[in-house]
Design a protein that fits this description.
single chain, Nucleotidyltransferase, domain 5, about 40% helix, globular, 15 helices, 7-stranded mixed β-sheet, alpha/beta, 5-stranded mixed β-sheet
Length: about 400
């Protein structure tokens, strides 16, 4: 037997595993590294976050990824070169963290790598009938495994698409394991580049997980254009200095994506600076000030989250919303959400013992655990649009 397969077999039979979860989002702020101790699988899973760190990306790393990110026309050679290069950068960060934490690589059972999303193309967006849903994350798992000496699970989204999903959001598979509570309706709201939420009913209703529209992506892109060297609107200072323009806000809300039924997925391929410019032209607000533009797109992100949650809740008047992702650090965005969802109680996932900045990396560690230890019945959620699959490709160090 291949020794890697024998080791994997042994790992699957252990009561618990030490797994590193990695998340690198579209904001390109850095690599989230979550060292997790995970016992059991499925609804019997117990997770403890042992260590967590976000390693900031260099300007060189950001620029290299932005050369190919979310663009229809790119340098194919550069894409080919970036696939292993990103893995080697991530491997170096992992090795450095383990050394800093005084943990041997051999003490880690698995790495769960989301990779770096380069393009997300659900059929609803590309609208080419002979092609289905598609997505591409680069950062090759074999290179990561060899450079760290740790079995690596990667490329999770492809199996979801192969089984009939849209490849995103995948949060539901971990959310229902970690956060479901019988008798209590909960929403797990993640505000990353794109905002998404998982509705976890306390009773017999269907679980729902869906993207709802832009989270930080439009705001961050606009800030980077207007203030080179700046990644985001720190403390919402620029947005707070402006006034919402109702004409531009209305134009931003006109896209057909918002009329489509849940679950659905989207990305910066739609919500980008071109989208903003088109909305400005439609609303005759091309000369709108930077501050007023930021105030408006901040409100736009908030409104689409609010509308989606209200649509999901129907006649429910009180619910707990556990928030995570970079958007929770945007005070104006969170203020809008709380003002327009007055019946909801807003909490951080920290209230459940999960660092909100680490949540996505933790969720991929859970997916890796399911890939190795679970069968389909353990990951079955029995809700429309959520395929019952264990996801991830396995790479051995040697």
């Amino acid at each position: 037997m291949n020794p890697g397969i024998q080791k994997l077999y042994n790992l699957a039979g252990k009561p618990g595993r030490i797994i590193i979860g990695l998340m690198s989002g579209t904001s390109l702020d850095g690599l989230d590294i979550a060292l997790c101790k995970i016992e059991g699988c499925g609804q019997n899973t117990k997770m403890e976050l042992l260590k967590f760190e976000t390693i900031s990306y260099t300007d060189d790393f950001k620029n290299e990824v932005r050369n190919v990110f979310s663009k229809k026309q790119i340098d194919l050679e550069k894409l080919c070169l970036l696939n292993p290069w990103i893995s080697l950068q991530h491997a170096g960060m992992i090795n450095d963290c383990l050394q800093k934490w005084n943990i041997k690589n051999s003490e880690v059972d698995l790495i769960a790598s989301h990779g770096q999303t380069i393009y997300h193309a659900p059929q609803r967006l590309h609208q080419q009938q002979k092609f289905g849903n598609a997505t591409l994350q680069i950062g090759d798992g074999d290179h990561l495994a060899v450079a760290t000496g740790i079995i690596t699970i990667s490329d999770f989204r492809q199996k979801n698409i192969a089984a009939g999903g849209e490849g995103a959001p995948l949060a539901v598979y971990g959310d229902h394991i970690l956060f479901s509570k019988k008798g209590e309706d909960r929403i797990l709201l993640n505000i990353g580049g794109i905002a998404n939420f998982t509705f976890l009913p306390g009773g017999d209703e269907n679980i729902l997980c869906t993207d709802v529209g832009p989270g930080n992506t439009l705001m961050d892109a606009y800030m980077q254009e207007k203030f080179p060297g700046t990644s985001f609107d720190h403390e919402s200072l620029v947005a707070k200095a402006g006034t919402v323009n109702e004409n531009l806000l209305a134009a931003l809300k006109e896209d057909d994506f918002f009329k489509q039924n849940f679950p659905k997925t989207t990305g910066p391929e739609l919500f980008n600076l071109h989208y903003l410019q088109q909305a400005k032209q439609k609303s005759d607000t091309v000369s709108l000030s930077t501050e007023d533009t930021m105030a408006t797109i901040n409100r736009f992100s908030a409104d689409m989250i609010v509308i989606a949650i209200k649509d999901c809740l129907k006649d429910k008047t009180e619910i707990k919303i556990f928030s995570s992702g970079g958007g929770i650090h945007n005070p104006l965005l969170m203020q809008h959400l709380q003002e327009h969802l007055p019946g909801c109680t807003f909490l951080s996932t920290a209230e459940t013992g999960v660092n909100p900045d680490a949540k996505e990396a933790v969720l991929f560690a859970l997916l890796a655990n399911e890939c190795v230890c679970s069968d389909v019945s353990a990951v079955e959620i029995k809700s429309p649009g959520i395929p019952a699959v264990a996801m991830g490709k396995i790479s051995f160090p040697a």
